[in-house]
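re: ur question from earlier - yeah i can do the single chain one, its not a big deal. heres the input i used so u can compare w yours
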Amino acid sequence: MKMLKSFGQLAAALGILLVFAMPSARADDLWTVSNIAVDATGTSPSTAKDAALAQGRVSAWAQLYRRLTPATEWARQPQLTPDELEQMVKSFDIANERHSSTRYLATVTYLFNPVSVRTALRKYGLQYSESTAKPVLVVPLTANVWTPDSPWSQAWTATAHAGHLVPIVVPVGDVAEMSLLSTISTAADWSAIKPLADRYNAGMVLIANAARSGGALQVTLTQIRPDGHAQRGASYVPQNREDELALSTRAATTIADTVQEEWKRSTSVDYGAQTSLSATVRFATLAEWIGVRRDLDSVRLIQNILVDELNLQGARLRFDYNGKVDQLQTALAQANLYLIPDANGTWILSRNAAPAPSPAPAAVP
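and the output i got, formated as tokens:
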């Protein structure tokens, strides 16, 4: 690594940073699988409990596997042994515990060890994603009106979750938001909804307008992003005597699952292969440089970062990363870092470039 002598203080601080910096803390939500119902019997209370917890680990692993991998990989889910699964679970919490001398029932939350999960997925050559997107803010409207007590809004409140690659959030609908929500049905560009999106650090706003038509639930989805907007629709027919809330919940879950799947398809990579790329990053202060390094450390696709050159105005970096360059660009954009080539084809890493596309739903089933 080449450093300029006139950059003594920054170089010293950088040395500390490179030695001691660890990847930024990542929320356990992605690796946590909640509300697994277990029910097993055994010859004693302890054997029944052990059997139930083992049963739950199988179900939790299946949910986590599908959370991280695109649907094209689901048929290849590794069938791990009970011992392998037990070692993969970092901890668990038990609720609603009931038992007799031969039966055990409970609701269990499992927290998986990320290192063990990655090792298993890579061992079997599976493509998966750890690239967490900025939240998608879903604004549920009923016949063009924000109605927080409607079944459609209730369904989205229940569907919203943080423990996925694309966090789904809904407006809280407080006083500060009411004027925006009252006119959002006519919003057509990012500038119109940016104040609302910024409250949730959302990379995209999805206006989900639902209305009954001929017995079916007709949904019009308007996605608005910094780089444009698009619209598509879908129809959901009641099944098995579904009431309004059940129908709305099924429709909302289907749409949310589609958002997750599209993101996984675009960001899943083979972690067995690495590529290198050099880029120039500009900064004005030490604090700005430390912030860039911190955010780079949060991007899971980046396996190694080398500083080839450092001076008062910026640095020359070399990345070792997994996946394609457009996947790296997308992952960096979620950390507000934008990788673009200049007129000479040199890669520039900046805070101020045009954002990469945020996750968007495909044609909704």
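The two ends are 52 Å apart (CA to CA). not sure if urs matches, ping me
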